[in-house]
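User: Study the fold:
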Amino acid sequence: MRDMSDRIREIPYNYTSFSDREIVIRYLGRENWELIEKLRATRRTGRSARMLFEILGDMWVVHRNPYLQDDLSQNSDRLKLLISALEHRLEQFKQRLNNNKDAEQLLQAAHQAVSRFSESFDADKQLRHKVRRAMTGITRKDNVDFGGLARVSHATDATDWRVEMPFVVISPDYEEEVAKTVKACLECGLTIIPRGGGTGYTGSAVPLHARTAIINTEKLEKISGIEQKKLPDSDLAAATVFTEAGVVTRRVSDLANKNGLAFAVDPTSQDASTIGGNIAMNAGGKKAVLWGTTLDNLVSWRMVTPDAKWLEVERLNHNLGKIHQQANVRFRLNRYEADGKTRIGHPEILEMPGEVFRKAGLGKDVTDKFLSGLPGVQKEGCDGLITSARFVLHRMPSFGRTVCLEFFGNDISNAVPAIVEIKDFVENSDDVLLPGLEHLDERYIKAVKYSAKSSSAEHAGQLPKMVLLADIVSDNEEHLDQVVQQVVELARKRDAEGFIATSPEARQRFWLDRARTAAISAHTNAFKINEDVVIPLGKLAEYNRGIETLNIKQSIKNKLQIKQDLLEFLQTDINRLCECEDHSEENLAFLKNKQNNAIETVTRSLNKWQFILEHINDPVSALSSVDAEIPDNRDIRDKGEIANSPQTIIDLMLNRSLRHSYSDEIAQPLNSIFSGHEFAVIRKRLVEIHAKRRASRLFIALHMHAGDGNVHTNIPVHSHDYHMLHEADRLVDSIMELALSLDGSISGEHGIGLTKFQYLDENKIKDFVAYKNKVDPEGHFNKGKLMPGSGLDDAYTPSLQLVQQEALILEESELGALNDDIKHCLRCGKCKPVCMTHVPRANLSYSPRNKILGTGLIIEAFLYEEQTRRGLAIQHFDEMNDVADHCTVCHKCLNPCPVNIDFGDVTIRMRKILSERGQKRFNLGTWSAMKLLNATDPRLVKSLRQLMLKWGFKGINLGHDLLKKTPLVKDTSKLPDATTGKLKVNDQLSALVSRPIRVELPKRSYRTELGLENKTQVPIISNPDKNNEDADAVFYFPGCGSERLFSDVGLATIAMLYDSGATTVLPPGYLCCGYPQSSAGLAAQGQKITTENRVLFHRIANTLNYMDIKTVLVSCGTCIDQLMKYEFEKIFPGSRLMDIHEYLLEKGYRLPDTAEKEYLYHDPCHSPIKSQPPINVARQLTGKQVELSDRCCGEAGTLGTSRPDIANQLRFRKSAELQKGMELISQNTGTDKNNIKLLTSCPACQQGLSRYADETGLKTDYIVVELANHLLGDNWQKSFTEKLKSAGIEQVLL
């Protein structure tokens, strides 16, 4: 008989955590699911019932995939084909009814579901038109986004739970637009969810209704400087900061730090979370131990209420500390009309005792959603939309230390009490503060790939079982060091080692591991159940014991299941798997004996551990009846002492005296039984059985804001494993029961959302429902959330594991590989701050996080349509092109990613897929650039250089000069338009000429000038005046940018090497490194260039074997990235690959003290300087305090010409960075802005930066060219080339 587990997912195209049950209930209702179960038992109608699954599969995949919806909505013929197929299946079902009343009822429900599905497309079109019309005149039209990428990236948060796709995403440009936007949405019948960074862990921003408008606040990014303000209704003045809701938390922290202050709101997600979300959730972080959470630090905030009017809330008589420690707390509420100016009525005063804000005895508690009727805070976006706020900042003492404590003892119960000891000790020490105390357990230590700091022989090769990180600060450095040393001594008494970081850089390094905790779920394709509970500090050890007990039980259960699976296998005819040559009766008996031994081994272990599981809380004496080894236990030396032991069985397992070792009890004995090559297949099968079942093992991992008892309790889960998901739910029940039994709280900072509502206290629910019905009875904001009936019943999560299985079935290896590239994304948003294509203010919201969510559904759309008669929609290729276009391939997202996803590599793969399928968008700019880069014939290079660079640049400049005063060229200081969707030629041309290219290219390249274009001869340049036996021999690879584009860069490099006395070997003729081709998706062409170059360089090495070339130099970042793959150490043995600027620094070069300019340095996305921070190299070479100018210049290889519209979005942000850098230099040095020069170390960047000359007045140059200008004299180019011509250049025939 078929096992029911095999029938969980029979509905096709279901790549989600839902089983058939949830999908049927979603479309047909619970009663009809019961009917289907009943009909499955019959034969004729059973097959018909399963036929319905095809219908449900089609509707379900379209329902959850906005790319499929858009295709069907925009292509009526394809929609008709789908609806016709659904109706055809219904007709087939009708013909099989066989007078079955139950089946008739099921058919009727299916007809209604298909009708609703069919009618939804027209209804959506009409509503979209209504929304666009309502929003006209309120905000720009491209701030109203119905696109697939916008919708899917706002359908979930860091949990990846989803219920419905939002109907529309609206991103107001200014705070003043928000009230009118809210009103327009309400008039269109939409419920509203406010949204910031999307970093929530409980699903608070997940839409529960299809008619939902997400209002994204990321463009609301105004932030003041530090302002000393007298606090409302108080004699106190304090340092404060004003910030709009969309400001990323890290920006506020950085501003405070630069001014010697602390911003107390510092959640782990601060690189992506926004201020509005922090307020709505009452977020905390590590500093909450000292200064409380968001609410404790708010001075005032502004929000739009459910009636589309304004509300300002001020805290009166602020205590500048934790709010629950103030006896009486008061707030003043002022209401205004939609214009934000006209006051409504008189101010209202809210007054409540401070103790109501948190459960007694806890440092955090965000479970009271009513919160005495205080608007906005802790309401999770259910009573309005927060738009701005003012916070108090705290003075940070002058000196700080970060202490890392590594606990190695097996008995973790001995380590956990150190948390309370350290906190009490520091708090009782005078003039010392503890602004952070964080904890990682053993599982997190492994997940973040922690590198132990201990070097002691005792702990060699071990990872600690627990790590504590503490920030300790004081104005008295000597006293601080004494306290820190005493903290280390306290920890040593608990089998720990302590390490102290003093410098800012070292302290930051200590905290890096804490920032990567999201990696705990990497092995489950980035899905986890994330619970944050708060436990009284004195009961943390009890909580830890309870969690470890649950872990031990889960481990035993999982291993028992593995043993059951092994027994099922071993009790089958395993002889067929034996690769034996002898099949005699005697040999069969021998095999049978092995089989019986194996069964006995597994059965004995299974029975023993089943007994232990059932008696785990019994005294140790219970172990007398089973064979359990207890090594090295201080209380039990032999079996004879078991009866007298005071311990229980779980005590032994917690201190690891008793271990359940699958390897010792099962794997090794079975491998011994089935040793030999003839049993290799059996051994392989045993390993597979173990691996399959072990993958479903649940465990609980802990990390804590230990100072206030806020414990993050995480359970990684495979979303495709239905039983594992539901077992995890039961495990969460146990966790919540444990937390509440210890007088704890079910949430300290993550909120309630969807995931915790079922655990919320009935009285708290009742209070919030009454509040919600009073302020928002129609459910205008976050409809259904935090209300009876909400929860995870309707929530699903995509399963990329199921997509992977489908990809294998379809033999779509490249799509499968693309799926593998992205499947571990945690949606944490840590990529956002460094991503060049995430600039919300410039209408650019293409962070890797968002693009990965979109890519996952594009893959799903491809896989679905490959299996339908309608075939692939060309539109999906356009959508993939759109994602692939919006990436500069800078690879900067790799470093902050906890699971090491490099979306630059993902983009390259996408472009490769598109190119190989012939679906990559043709672009004249890219095509022309590739023609120039691929050219090797000198005549063709000259012609293309003349046509594309000289005439092309002149054409762009002429177009700009002619059109800049017309509406055809948009003012670059204004917000750029969105670039999602179809490309318009006019828009591209307008964007191309919006900024001129102010560069003067040499009339002839240095290769032409010096006669070095012969690709059969290797040029060797040496300085006869400085030639000696000890002089360096270097191989210089100029690349395209340093000789075809800005040949002065290549010439300056050669000139400086000449001046240093080095002998310079150049490649023969014009060569490209192959990077541009590879990054454009032209993988075969890129590989061909790379291979040919490597072969050529080996020939050069063989030809010049008399030269000791130890250094390979480049003057371009993409070149060095590509050349790292060439393995130059094998071409020129013992050689190193480095940038020209690092080499010149090594040789002692720097600008003369007479240099009058001040400098900004633009570090390229592909920085060629690898051995140290590039800004340090720039400062040492110039001898100036060079300031770094961040962000992409907008050129990004060929992006500036292939997608000038996207480039202009990048330039909008870069222009602001340049202006900020100039202002900073002017303030610091007193120099005039006209005396500032911009330096870089990338040819493409030099071209891109020249586009800012008109608006900033900055002249751009290469560092090496600037060195040559100052050190080699005026008109050095002419004098150097003439010197080389007269002396002659050695050219060796290959």
